[in-house]
Amino acid sequence: MKALICLAGNLVLSAPNGPRLDRALPGLDFMVCVDPYLNETTRHADVILPPPRIMQTPHYDFLMQIVTVRNYTRFSPAAVPLGADQRSEAEILAKLTLIASGAGHQVPAEALDQGILSQVVGGIVDMPGSPFADVDTERMLAELEGDSGPEKFLDVLLKFGSYGLTLADLRANPHGIDLGALQPRLKELLRTGSGAVELAPPALVADVARLRARYAGQAPEFLLIGRRQLRSNNSWLHNTQSLVGGSNTCTLHIHPDDATRLGIADRALVRSAAGALEVAVERTPKIMPGVVSLPHGWGHRGGRQRVANTTDGVNANTLTDDSVVDALSGNAVFNGVPVSVLPIG
Can you give the residue ranges of the Molybdopterin dinucleotide-binding domain (predicted)? Predict the structure, then answer.
């Protein structure tokens, strides 16, 4: 690997064996980060492209609508305009896409937006059995509303959606539009061969033998699992003074019986195949004996995050082995990490 584009991800804290990655990033030929912070990862970048502040960014609730308990839609325009020297996050990403694809930085971001919009509209119109087969593609593209490519893309999705809405409708209803109670859609959306929710697909069933073989061996002294605090999202919120401290701290949860048996008081040394770290201990009966837990995203050192750098936290991914992956998904194994725990002091 010669180059890296990192989008708002603090990989040194959130990827397996973070310290190894921290040592490797300076060896890249080029690294660019889209991030508002100079943190443990972005400090290695050749270029940092800061996105605008939240109040300068329009918002549509794609994520929240997945988990809401009522059907609604809402669009929030930017409350504060961009400065003359600022670029929207969408324009930054469009420019990076054009450069990475070989088009060059001279090509305007609108060219990528228009290409995507043409493919989306054309694909919906030309899809076999499409209820929009009689739509004039060129006219649709010309009449799209929005101040940017992403807003026009949203207008496309609304116009082709089930409710016949437009971006103008959402702008006219700044508090949102109530579309009624949620409706069952499982049968409509389920695409398994059997037509049912397959709780035991063949790939998982075939992997059970490997799982049993693993647990047939000697059990580790402890298994390390992760956790998230209410006021902590990944590594992002530790630089906000009002959100750190109190219950939002980085401690090793351990069952009181285990702590007493090992003679652990205030601090402990946790060691895995990948590394070791010292951490403050919190005894709690809420965790099982034989299991310890560290929160994700802590261990801020080396960046310029004034508040985050003062927190007494450790990087849990110092203990996560980057050579161990889940056999089926290829994903890193962040939970169930074999560790040993020793008293300090």
Answer: 222-337
Buried b (16+ CB within 10 A) or exposed e, 206-217: eeeeeeeeeeee
Per-residue pLDDT at 22: 94
b/e per residue, 107-143, with b = 16+ CB within 10 A? eebeebbeebbeebbeebbeeeeeeeeeeeeeebbee
118, 112, 121: which is closest to 93 by C-alpha? Answer: 112
Better pLDDT: 319 or 130: 319
The answer on pLDDT for 86 being more than 90 is: yes
Smallest CA-to-CA distance from 181 within 277, 68, 290 is with 68
Closest by CA to 93, choosing from 8, 156, 154, 13, is 8
pLDDT, position 310:
85
Q: What is the pLDDT of residue 63?
A: 85
| Token pair for 228 | 């998230």
How much is the average pLDDT of 22-29?
96
Q: Which two tokens stand for residue 292?
A: 């310890």
Angle at 292 (CA atoms; ends 318, 19), nearest 5 degrees: 0
Domain boundaries, the chain: 46-178, 222-343
What is the distance, to the nearest Å, from the Cα of residue 141 to the centroid of all Cα atoms in its chain? 32
Q: Comparing C-alpha atoms, which of 297, 186, 192 is closest to residue 248?
A: 297
Strand bridging mode 47-49 / 30-34: parallel
Q: What confidence tier does 317 reach under pLDDT thresholds 50, 70, 90?
A: very high
- Report which secondary-structure segment, H or E, holds 339: strand 337-343
Q: Phi then psi for 95, rounded to 5 degrees?
A: -65, -40
Q: Does domain 222-343 have CATH number 2.40.40.20?
A: yes
